[in-house]
Amino acid sequence: MKTMSRMFWALFVFFLVMVPFYGIWNKWSEAAGPVALLLTALMMALAGWYIGVTDKKFANQPEDNPDAHVEDAAGEYGFFTPYSWWPLWLGLSCAGLFAGLAVGWWLFMIFAVMGAWALIGWVFEHYKGEHAN
Asked: What pLDDT shows up at residue 133?
Protein backbone atom coordinates (compact mmCIF):
# COMPACT_ATOMS: atom_id res chain seq x y z
CA MET A 1 0.00 0.00 0.00
CA LYS A 2 2.95 2.30 0.54
CA THR A 3 3.91 1.91 -3.10
CA MET A 4 0.38 2.69 -4.27
CA SER A 5 0.22 5.76 -2.06
CA ARG A 6 3.55 7.02 -3.40
CA MET A 7 2.40 6.34 -6.96
CA PHE A 8 -0.73 8.46 -6.51
CA TRP A 9 1.26 11.26 -4.87
CA ALA A 10 3.73 11.18 -7.78
CA LEU A 11 0.81 11.42 -10.22
CA PHE A 12 -0.54 14.34 -8.19
CA VAL A 13 2.75 16.20 -8.59
CA PHE A 14 2.94 15.33 -12.30
CA PHE A 15 -0.57 16.61 -13.10
CA LEU A 16 -0.07 19.70 -10.97
CA VAL A 17 3.15 20.54 -12.82
CA MET A 18 1.44 19.95 -16.17
CA VAL A 19 -1.26 22.58 -15.50
CA PRO A 20 0.92 25.64 -16.33
CA PHE A 21 2.74 23.80 -19.13
CA TYR A 22 -0.55 22.98 -20.82
CA GLY A 23 -1.79 26.53 -20.35
CA ILE A 24 1.37 28.00 -21.88
CA TRP A 25 1.33 25.46 -24.70
CA ASN A 26 -2.13 26.52 -25.89
CA LYS A 27 -1.59 30.19 -24.91
CA TRP A 28 -4.39 29.98 -22.28
CA SER A 29 -6.92 30.04 -25.13
CA GLU A 30 -9.25 27.58 -23.40
CA ALA A 31 -9.88 26.90 -19.74
CA ALA A 32 -11.12 23.32 -19.87
CA GLY A 33 -7.70 21.68 -20.15
CA PRO A 34 -6.00 23.29 -17.15
CA VAL A 35 -9.12 22.85 -15.02
CA ALA A 36 -9.34 19.17 -16.00
CA LEU A 37 -5.66 18.66 -15.18
CA LEU A 38 -6.08 20.42 -11.84
CA LEU A 39 -9.10 18.30 -10.95
CA THR A 40 -7.19 15.17 -11.97
CA ALA A 41 -4.32 16.22 -9.72
CA LEU A 42 -6.72 16.71 -6.81
CA MET A 43 -8.27 13.30 -7.50
CA MET A 44 -4.81 11.70 -7.36
CA ALA A 45 -4.11 13.51 -4.07
CA LEU A 46 -7.37 12.22 -2.62
CA ALA A 47 -6.55 8.64 -3.61
CA GLY A 48 -2.98 8.93 -2.31
CA TRP A 49 -4.15 10.40 0.99
CA TYR A 50 -6.82 7.72 1.48
CA ILE A 51 -4.46 4.85 0.73
CA GLY A 52 -1.83 6.38 3.02
CA VAL A 53 -4.31 6.67 5.90
CA THR A 54 -5.52 3.12 5.28
CA ASP A 55 -1.92 1.90 5.27
CA LYS A 56 -1.30 3.46 8.69
CA LYS A 57 -4.51 1.94 10.02
CA PHE A 58 -3.78 -1.57 8.74
CA ALA A 59 -0.02 -1.99 8.98
CA ASN A 60 1.91 -4.95 7.56
CA GLN A 61 -0.35 -5.79 4.64
CA PRO A 62 0.69 -8.61 2.27
CA GLU A 63 0.97 -6.05 -0.55
CA ASP A 64 3.92 -4.44 1.25
CA ASN A 65 5.86 -7.69 1.69
CA PRO A 66 7.92 -8.58 -1.39
CA ASP A 67 8.09 -12.24 -0.27
CA ALA A 68 4.32 -12.60 0.26
CA HIS A 69 2.21 -15.13 -1.60
CA VAL A 70 -1.24 -14.63 -3.09
CA GLU A 71 -2.88 -16.77 -0.42
CA ASP A 72 -1.53 -14.44 2.30
CA ALA A 73 -4.26 -11.95 1.36
CA ALA A 74 -7.02 -14.56 1.71
CA GLY A 75 -9.81 -14.05 4.19
CA GLU A 76 -13.02 -12.16 4.62
CA TYR A 77 -13.23 -8.81 2.85
CA GLY A 78 -16.60 -7.76 4.22
CA PHE A 79 -20.28 -8.22 3.58
CA PHE A 80 -21.58 -7.74 0.07
CA THR A 81 -25.12 -8.05 -1.23
CA PRO A 82 -25.62 -11.39 -2.99
CA TYR A 83 -27.67 -9.77 -5.75
CA SER A 84 -29.27 -6.41 -6.12
CA TRP A 85 -31.22 -4.62 -8.83
CA TRP A 86 -30.69 -1.17 -7.33
CA PRO A 87 -27.34 -0.43 -9.05
CA LEU A 88 -29.01 -1.03 -12.42
CA TRP A 89 -31.73 1.54 -11.69
CA LEU A 90 -29.18 3.98 -10.30
CA GLY A 91 -27.02 3.63 -13.40
CA LEU A 92 -29.99 4.09 -15.72
CA SER A 93 -31.08 7.17 -13.83
CA CYS A 94 -27.57 8.65 -14.06
CA ALA A 95 -27.57 8.05 -17.81
CA GLY A 96 -31.00 9.68 -17.99
CA LEU A 97 -29.72 12.66 -15.98
CA PHE A 98 -26.97 13.30 -18.52
CA ALA A 99 -29.41 12.83 -21.38
CA GLY A 100 -31.74 15.27 -19.64
CA LEU A 101 -29.02 17.93 -19.73
CA ALA A 102 -29.02 17.68 -23.52
CA VAL A 103 -32.74 17.10 -24.13
CA GLY A 104 -34.48 19.25 -21.56
CA TRP A 105 -34.93 20.00 -17.90
CA TRP A 106 -38.21 18.11 -17.74
CA LEU A 107 -36.35 14.85 -18.50
CA PHE A 108 -33.61 15.78 -16.04
CA MET A 109 -36.16 16.22 -13.24
CA ILE A 110 -37.84 12.87 -13.98
CA PHE A 111 -34.53 11.03 -13.76
CA ALA A 112 -33.47 13.03 -10.67
CA VAL A 113 -36.52 11.66 -8.86
CA MET A 114 -35.79 8.18 -10.20
CA GLY A 115 -32.15 8.48 -9.09
CA ALA A 116 -33.16 9.54 -5.57
CA TRP A 117 -35.56 6.59 -5.41
CA ALA A 118 -32.86 4.17 -6.57
CA LEU A 119 -30.25 5.57 -4.17
CA ILE A 120 -32.60 5.32 -1.20
CA GLY A 121 -33.56 1.79 -2.23
CA TRP A 122 -29.93 0.73 -2.50
CA VAL A 123 -28.95 2.23 0.85
CA PHE A 124 -31.87 0.72 2.75
CA GLU A 125 -32.20 -2.64 0.99
CA HIS A 126 -30.91 -4.52 4.04
CA TYR A 127 -33.49 -3.04 6.39
CA LYS A 128 -36.46 -4.99 5.06
CA GLY A 129 -37.29 -7.94 2.89
CA GLU A 130 -35.30 -11.09 2.21
CA HIS A 131 -31.86 -9.73 3.28
CA ALA A 132 -32.97 -7.78 6.38
CA ASN A 133 -30.40 -7.66 9.15
From this structure: 58
